[in-house]
Amino acid sequence: MPNPVRISLDAMGGDLGAAIVVPGAALALERHPDMRLILVGDEGVIRPILATHPKLEAASEVRHAEISIAMDEKPGQALRTGRWKSSMWKAIQAVRDGEADAAVSAGNTGALMAMSKVCLKTMAHIERPSIAAIWPTMRGESIVLDVGATVGADAAHLVDMAIMGAAMARIVFDTERPTVGLLNVGTEEVKGVEIVREANRTLREANFPGLAYHGFVEGDDLGRGTVDVVVTEGFTGNIALKTAEGTAKQIAAYLRAAMNRTWRARLGYLLARGAFDALRDKMDPRKVNGGVFLGLEGIVIKSHGGTDALGFASAIDVAYDMAQHELMRTIRDMLDETSPVPSA
What we know:
The protein has helices at 18-31, 43-50, 54-58, 75-82, 87-96, 109-120, 155-173, 194-206, 220-224, 234-259, 263-271, 273-283, 309-324, 327-338, and strands at residues 6-10, 36-41, 60-64, 102-105, 130-137, 140-145, 179-183, 212-217, 229-231, 291-294, 300-302.
């Protein structure tokens, strides 16, 4: 039998900490009964909640951590105060030491990235990690990166992200040559800033074997699912992500208001309830929760800080899939195949 996938959890991360992390882990374990978990955090808080989930308790180890990183703590401060003793650091450390195949945290994004870079280091030839998100589209799903790891990018970094995003797409979409597009203000070759045009030229001329370069894509292509992987820098990507989440909530609010306006509308809702339930399920951000840190010497998954147990379970699902299908090996193979332009 293959070895079980081992995942370490920052049990104190996020808005509600262990109150969400432990039930979320229990839900994920139902889907992946071969999984083993390390719950890192305040043992006095974790164990009473864990006791209500006997199957999870049997499949878990609890590791005490004295400190939890605040959601508003600055990355540098978090490194100084939380290194060695925090639940976040210890969860990442378990990956570094080979005790876990992936780490998941709903904690402070900046602190998680800073600690991951210090603890795990970046891969050879990768200067800066990126956060990749699975994005629901009209055709299914796409991968979008970077959605907030760093602000700004040079052409070499955009090319690196295209390669790493394609490696992740191979796993998520089970395709040998994922399509990749660069997010731009238009699809014409002359449009956009020079950095994006330079990356476009590199990707076109290189004709990397592990990806099919599509060219420029625009904002509306994110929802259409025009390509498997959309590449942009972190500032733009994070705005796009937050805009999409806000739009989904706005549409849901409009629908609720419209369905309650008159008795005819309420009757119409009852008659079309199945369709509305399917729409709500498709737009549920909890189902695609879990950003993957790409470019590190280890797998780290960032969950939304305000998610519930179902959302945190989805982030664990992502960690499980990335570990089971050997994301690190796939990225290394892609980097070897493509011989990317060295980062400046």
